[in-house]
Amino acid sequence: MNVISRIQFPRTPETSNLYINCNEFASLDFHTKHTDIVLIKNGFLSLNTYFNSFYEKFYAKYTELSELYYLLMLEGDFQVYLYREQHSRENRELVHTESFKNCQPSEPVKISLPSSWRSDDAGRLYLEIICLSERGSFIKGFLATNQPKIREVSLGIITCTFRKEDFVKKTVSVILEDDVLSEKNFKVFVVDNGKTLKEDEFEHQNVQLFYNKNVGGAGGFTRGLIQALQENIYTHFLFMDDDIELESESIHRLFTLYEYANQDFAISGSMLDLYKKYELYEAGALFGKWSDSDGRIQDNPFSLLALKSNINLKKNFNSILVEDRPDYGGFWFLSFSLKTLNETGLPMPFFIRADDVEFGLRITRYISKTIVAFPGIAVWHEPFYAKSLSWINYYDCRNYLITHSIYDSVKYLDVVKFLTKSILHKIFLFDYNSAGMILKGFEDYMKGPVLINNSDAETLHTDVLAQAKNYKNQNLQTSLSKDEQNSTFSYKNNVEPTFKTIMSILTLNGHLIPNFLLSGDDVLYYVTSDYSDRWTKVFGKKRVVILMEGNNNVYQYEMSHPSGIGILIRWLKLITNSYIRWSSVSSEWKRSFKHFTSNEFWSDYLQINEKK
Q1: Fewer CB within 10 Å: C terminus or N terminus of the chain?
Q2: d(CA 427, CA 435)
Q3: Residue-wise pLDDT tens digits, 5-26
Q4: 251 burial via Cβ count (<10 Å: 0-12, 13-18, 19+)
């Protein structure tokens, strides 16, 4: 018998409905390390949940599995129901029901899946259980098969960190404490770019800690990957960000999927919102796309379109059964085979941002393989709407331009059009540091590959951080607690008058208006996961206070006429002087691609040979 997936118990009440739903006659104790669910007569529990559904449609398509059955460890009398739901049908289907009397944990009950699980009607299966005796217990359960594995899988798990010690140590502990995973062949490579972790905190034989230069996430993942390759035993690899909350069953399901896979594919774990733990933030994404207000997908060179975004997983979540074709999967949880790696090469030296985008494009476009966002494989990660770091704009601009060059996917005028809008938007909000970072990103891209060949990543990043503070009009005003933040967010999606919008554009949102005509009152500008105020809200004001959902900081930006106009003039000069060189610089970046993704480059870049 081989276990395919396990029925997972929630660790906290906050996320319980992602695992199991119970009525008032069933209880789960979160104050102890629970081992079962206690039920009295008519106690009911349902596995109609995100983590404990069996997504038969995906397993039927991507594995050779055929014979599957549930094994349940119960105590007492029970009626068990097996249901199927599909995206295209409103009503659920009762697939099977069966009564079990005098159940004992030593003799698990077996419920075989009908052959229809591999048919065109496949969707999502789940169990519901009712206690018929005066008292009963649900102890554990899993989905299993008697089919032998097609292949043995060994997994190199790589996580890199920069001063996120608590997150990393918790992630490693979750993996090592999983008894079933301990039977699998894996090793965790922890790459510490900040050199703040201690070796005696990772003494397990399945964990290895490396200190590394601060070369960003791309450099950290690659350092771990090179080390794992040198051991020459791993069939697959898994990248995981440092700032995640992990469900270890996600890794277990990687093993079983690859053990029975009928083809070579990469697996992208979905990202759940760390602040709204029932929200599916992203299940793979598209590069260079965005969705308008009517849901139509359109081209946009610097946009990323998150798939399956903002789905509440407590409610009807059958929409996740519709399979998308993502261009890439985030490095918060991305798994791929050694064969794929040999065909694509190592990541690009991007430091951060777009490294996962470019690596995914190699898989889906260069070698035409599939990245699958399997439902039920996920991590919680800090949402991007809660982050506000002006220097991030530098890496976004530079690295997306390099990625477009590699794939010949953008024209100069489209770049100018998009970046001009982005810079104006920053200026209109008095966010001059972010606007300046976009300009620097463009300037450094125009330097060509010599920028990376002749620069030390740590030194360059230090310079970027310093320049991100050039404009002194921006400051962190105060800090809000979660309760204060929630009470503060009372925004309205108002439509500004056309006249005000026209005046805002003509005056660069007030930058061409004399200072004495501007209001000294602060204006509150809101940004949430699915909403942001219009920039016209700031028109006629001297200061804007920006509140971001999930971010307990409050940012105050003040208008500076010389700064805003100076950035715009600098941008106009830059794009005028860059037009002639654009094609040749893009070609240089494309030609350098194989060099930057080679073992030779990375060994020198990371000074691996010198360390030896």
Answers
A1: C
A2: 7
A3: 999 999 888 899 999 999 999 9
A4: buried
Q: Which residue has the tokens 């849901």?
A: 295
Helix boundaries (H) for 190-248: 216-231
Return d(Cα 71, Cα 52) in angstroms, integer: 14
Reduced to 3 states, what is the DSSP secondary structure of residue 32? coil
Residue in 439, 418, 434, 421 with CA at minimum distance from that of residue 578 = 439
Distance CA 530, CA 376 (A): 24
Range of the domain at 509: 392-578
Whether the pTM exceeds 0.70: the reply is: yes
Q: Which residues share a beta bridge with 286?
A: 305
- CA dist list (Å): 15 to 4, 65, 112, 278, 463: 23, 30, 29, 7, 42
Name the residue type at position 530: D
Residue 139 CA to residue 82 CA, distance in Å, equals: 18
pLDDT in tens, 483-534: 555 555 455 556 667 888 899 999 999 999 999 899 988 888 988 877 888 8
144-189 per-position pLDDT tens digit: 999 999 999 999 999 999 988 899 999 999 999 999 999 999 999 9
- Do 309 and 167 reside in the same domain of the chain? yes
d(CA 121, CA 113): 14
CA-wise closest residue to 589 among 411, 412, 442, 403: 403
Residues 186 and 324 in one domain: yes
**Residue pair 63/261 in contact by the 8 Å Cβ criterion:** yes
Q: How far apart are CA 70 and CA 127, in angstroms?
A: 9
In a domain, 324, yes or no: yes
| Vertex 12 angle, CA 331 and 39, to 5° | 130
Q: Which token pair is 304?
A: 């990323």
Side chain identity, residue 230: Q
Q: Which helix (H) or strand (E) holds 523?
A: strand 519-527
* DSSP collapsed to 3 states, 342-379: HHHCCCCCCCCCCHHHHHHHHHHHHCCCEEECCCCCEE
Question: Between β-strands 378-381 and 270-273, what pairing exists: parallel, antiparallel or unpaired?
Answer: parallel
In this structure, the answer to whether residues 346 and 442 fall within a common structural domain is no
As a whole number of angstroms, the distance between CA 225 and CA 237 comes to 8
- Kindly report the CA angle at 146 between 142 and 152, in degrees rounded to 5? 90
- The residues with which 474 forms a beta bridge, in sequence order, are 557
Strands 474-479 and 553-558: antiparallel
Query: What is the rounded distance in angstroms from the CA atom of residue 250 to the CA atom of residue 376?
Result: 7
- Domain of 52, CATH number, reads 2.60.120.380
Instruction: Let me know whether 89 and 199 are in one domain.
Output: no
Provide the 10 A C-beta neighbour count for residue 90. 8
For residue 4, which phi and psi values (nearest 5 degrees)? -90, -45
